[in-house]
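Please, structure for the following, as tokens.
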Amino acid sequence: MEQKLQFPRDFLWGASTSAFQVEGGWNEGGRGIANSDVRNIPSGLADYKGASDHYHHMKEDVRYMKELGIKVYRFSFSWTRIMPDGHHANQEGLNFYHSLINELIQNDIIPFPTLYHFEMPYALIEEFGGWVDRRCVDAYVQYATICFQEFKDQVKMWATINEQMCATAPDDMNGNLTEDDYLRQKTLYQMSYHMTLAEKMAISKFRNLIPDGQIGHVVAMQVIYSETSSPKDVLAALNAQDELQWSFLDLSIKGKYSHHFQSYLKQKKIYPQMNQRDLHYLAENKPDFIGVNYYASCCVRAKNKLDDCLKMPPFYQSDQFYVVENKCIQATEWMHFGIDPDGLYMGLRQLYDRYELPMIITENGMAYSDQLIDGSISDNYRIDYLKQHLEKCYQFIQEGYPLIGYCPWSLLDLVSSHEGFSKRYGLIYVDRTNDDMKSCERIKKKSFYWYQNIIQNNGIEGEE
């Protein structure tokens, strides 16, 4: 028998996108060259220059948001559209976001921008290497301050940096092209530190400019399981969680690494360079909430000498753990780590118990090679995924935890980071292929209507 799982009256139902994956219009409106524009895209895949053409479909997309019924739209500013050379503001770019924000507000939708979602002016990488150089801290703070000053009267909910672990990892997006493994890893942690410092300094500016606003950090939540109950595997899981998640959040929220992680970085001689004057920024300027991106959990064991992890993403190339298949979870074509709604609940509990900050789900979604059949997409698999995860959100809220909203990834199909338009997450289908932009017609999927009904009823049908 099913019962209705009712969410709090003020729960923020939303949806998410990011600028470089959705906007397009790469050479319009005074926009400069972004790191994503020069990325090495595998042959046959779509690049980011056209994306989903939101730049030309903006008002139409907001109409879809209104029809869907969302209360909040989580998007990102393109740093390159606002500051093409990384130093000077572009009024045309600012005007585009003013138009978007005005359109959202007129339709009773809360604008929720992220300042940095993987995209930055390529000029800063050419000039001094991007985040590896401390000058990038000042560039980000200048950019953030311009955004705060420009939109402070209309935007009260902000995010600083999206998925710091993932933002520092892709070499072709950040300029970390050294082939020396040791220097590469050292550079990763220096970049990461500079991001945290920039975030902290920006929050300090935010407190003065938007005292009635809220600003948060967005984490790629890592839920780590041990492959066995062997103490060595359990310790590997503990270390993996420290390395892949707590290291970033501890510095962002507490202003310091854990004792274990400090010791680990120093032992490896990859501890980032810090200035004494940074310490007060790190200790202060705590974010108001945590944005949580979650797709699936991860399973690890203790690493053996013969294990080769070079094909793994950079932060998974560790001597503290080795990533393995979780045989208890079913993988799919694009969800390589499997589908694990229980992991969402457990991860949220871990986050709150460690930091005691309110949370909002900023990304959660099901990737699939959707096919347009007779003009429609019956994506029951996506509905099932979202429903299972919303049930875990409900459980979390019922236990008294402060989860304030849910933004599935993504509002509409967009360019995936590594798979172009073959891999789709959207509630709205964008009619284009990897090699043909077509007209980027928007077509509502079955999941659009399902989520619309969830919002209208402020709840879901759950198992009793």
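The chain has a mean pLDDT of 95. The first helix runs from residue 19 to 22.
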